[in-house]
Design a protein that fits this description.
The complex is a heterodimer.
Chain A: E1 4-15, E2 18-29, E3 33-37, H1 44-51, E4 59-64, E5 67-68, H2 74-80, E6 82-84, H3 97-105, H4 112-126, H5 141-154, E7 159-163, H6 171-186, E8 190-194, H7 198-204, E9 207-212, E10 215-220, H8 222-227, H9 229-236
Parallel strand pairs in A: 3-8, 3-9, 6-7, 7-8
Antiparallel strand pairs in A: 1-2, 1-4, 4-5, 9-10
Chain B: H1 2-22, H2 26-49, H3 59-75, H4 81-103, H5 110-128, E1 138-139, H6 146-170, H7 172-182, H8 184-189, H9 194-220, E2 222-223, H10 225-229, H11 232-244, H12 250-269, H13 274-291, H14 295-300
Antiparallel strand pairs in B: 1-2
Helix pairs in contact in B: 1-6, 2-6, 2-9, 2-11, 2-12, 3-4, 3-5, 3-9, 3-11, 4-9, 6-7, 6-9, 7-9, 11-12
Chain lengths: 241, 326
């Protein structure tokens, strides 16, 4: 594994009495795709919120490229190179698709005209150019998930956090999104991806981290993790293991 | 569509510029001067109310702060009008920073309540302080030149409109504001600092109000807590912006002209039915909120709706569902 880009170091997160994350440690190396899986409520989205600055962890540290970024706000992390998508998509509904992406491009291209040019490139790359002038609210679910990726990508991130960008799409749409993710990866972006669809995770991840009840229960190459009795038990119950 | 709106705004500015060449009637000039002031106030209110969704129910406080700052500096400090006017705008903007930093982090009704409370507090302050003249108000040196005030108002309101138009419709700032209005959390992920941007918008909205307040004070030559710090300025600005169409700048300008014309008509020709004015106005507002949520401008152009002309192209291929190799 190459040098760690993201290091999650003994992160815990409690909400009242609920321990949403329990002493979780792992890292994402430069150029890696790491899959994050686990049953519903395992803490995947909470972990995303911690890494992208939406939640400050109760304890533990988050490091980006060796630098401690624990507790930094989302807009600072965006500047430092973390791009994320939201499981519950967040399009700016009243704006057009082009305007949505232009807003994201403003981070590195402060002039609106330049940001707009850059946004067109992103729309071409993500296959949304034909819908550029439509309102974001009028996109299909697949389109809105694609728009999430396009916006995160506009930040020219070093690390991209993808939260269920494939779930809910039909197989063809899913295929295209997977191709897009691989294209992004080839352009040099490291990726941490949460996904329920095992086929996706198993195909594209270099490594997989498994969470259950907030704790990491397994980590390793996809094939090994899939054979791991603890993982099978977590997903299917004790009898299956 | 935006281009045609800018064109219409330019034509309107041209029409306002030549009105004094057509009539020397003092009453008419005075009415049009005040109409232009309301355009400025409604358009400025729209910056925050329309583009960010934060309802400022203390717009009048910033107008009044500008009026009082100008008056106090001219009368007690013997400042020239132009400098005192600038100070009025600066005071209003500074007050917005102080009021906005804690309150613009809040969502929902809290900002509206806080700004309303601020306006009451500022009014009480003007009532009890010595140097503001308390309930007696302040009298300014009369400068009875209707043409001066007409063209000063014209120039200021035109400048306010042009600056706001460029910042909100042409520059990055307006896009950021709209993104924050649509989804603040999503905007943060893209590197936007919502509170800082909203405070900037608040300043952009209140500085014009302060400047217009300063002009009003010198023009009318008398201000007191009831006239410049009462509810009227806020209420009318809000109603004009909502009726005209929020978040469009042009809409509030149109709303300002129509509502002010309606009000003046009542005041001039139907003064014995004065009581009906507020009833009719209230009914019109209630109906427009229900039936014209995008305001009058929404009837003419559908900018915020932007319905697709044809159905969304499907994302899937026509060959149908092919399963991926595992």
């Amino acid at each position: 594994m190459s040098r760690a880009l993201l290091t999650v170091d003994r992160v815990s997160m409690t909400f009242g009495g609920l321990r949403a994350l329990d002493d979780v440690s792992f890292s994402v190396g430069t150029g890696e795709i790491v899959g994050l899986i686990g049953p519903n409520g395992a803490g995947k989205t909470t972990l995303f919120n911690v890494v992208s600055g939406y939640c400050r962890p109760t304890s533990g540290r988050v490091r980006l490229d060796g630098k401690d970024v624990t507790g930094k706000r989302p807009f600072d992390l965006a500047r430092l190179g973390i791009g994320r998508t939201f499981q519950i998509v967040k399009p700016f509904a009243g704006l057009t698709v082009l305007e949505n992406v232009t807003v994201a491009c403003l981070l590195h291209h402060p002039r609106r005209r330049h940001a707009r040019q850059k946004a067109w490139e992103i729309l071409e790359f993500t296959g949304l150019a034909d819908r550029a002038h439509r309102p974001a609210s009028g996109l299909t679910l697949a389109g809105r998930k694609r728009l999430e990726i396009a916006k995160a990508l506009s930040l020219t991130p070093r690390l991209l956090l993808l939260d269920e960008v494939v779930a809910g799409l039909n197989p063809t749409e899913a295929d295209r999104t997977i191709e897009l993710i691989l294209d992004i990866h080839r352009s040099g972006v490291s990726i941490l991806i949460v996904e329920h669809i095992m086929r996706v995770i198993m195909n594209i991840s270099d490594r997989v981290v498994v969470l259950n009840y907030g704790a990491k229960i397994a980590e390793g190459p996809p094939r090994e993790v899939a054979q791991d009795p603890t993982v099978i038990e977590a997903y299917l119950g004790e009898a299956a293991a | 569509m935006q281009r045609s709106r800018a064109l219409w705004a330019g034509i309107a500015a041209g029409v306002f510029a030549v009105i004094p060449l057509l009539t020397r009637d003092t009453f008419a000039l005075r009415v049009v001067t005040e109409a232009m002031m309301w355009i400025g106030l409604a358009v400025a209110w729209d910056v925050l109310g329309g583009y960010t969704g934060y309802l400022n129910f203390g717009h009048g406080a910033f107008f009044g702060l500008g009026a009082y700052t100008t008056a106090v500096l001219m009368m007690r400090g013997h400042w020239p009008f132009a400098l005192a006017l600038v100070a009025g705008g600066v005071t209003a903007g500074a007050a917005a920073v102080v009021a906005g930093l804690p309150t613009l982090r809040l969502k929902g009704a809290y900002f509206a309540i806080a700004t309303w409370a601020l306006s009451r507090a500022v009014q009480q302050l003007a009532l009890v302080l010595e140097f503001t003249g308390g309930p007696d108000g302040m009298r300014l040196p009369p400068f009875l030149n209707p043409m001066f005030f007409y063209y000063l108002m014209w120039a200021l309101v035109t400048a306010i409109f042009v600056v706001l138009w460029i910042l909100l419709e042409r520059s990055a700032f307006g896009l950021k504001l709209q993104a924050i209005r649509e989804d603040e959390e999503g905007a943060m992920a893209l590197g936007l600092r919502p509170t800082a941007i909203k405070v900037q918008a608040f300043v952009l909205s209140t500085v014009p109000a302060g400047i217009l307040g300063g002009v009003y004070a010198y023009w009318i030559t008398f201000i007191d807590p009831a006239s410049v710090l009462g509810d009227l300025v806020t209420d009318q600005s809000v109603v004009m912006a909502v009726f005209g169409g929020l978040g469009t700048l042009v809409g509030p300008a149109v709303g300002a002209v129509l509502i002010y014309a309606f009000k003046t008509f009542f005041w001039a020709y139907l003064s014995e039915y004065q009581v009906l004015y507020l009833i009719i106005l209230g009914t019109v507002i209630a109906l427009s909120v229900v039936f014209l949520p995008d305001g009058l401008i929404g009837l003419m152009a559908r900018r915020r709706i932007k319905e697709p002309a044809e159905p969304e192209p499907a994302d899937e291929d026509s060959q149908g569902l092919r399963e991926v190799a595992p």
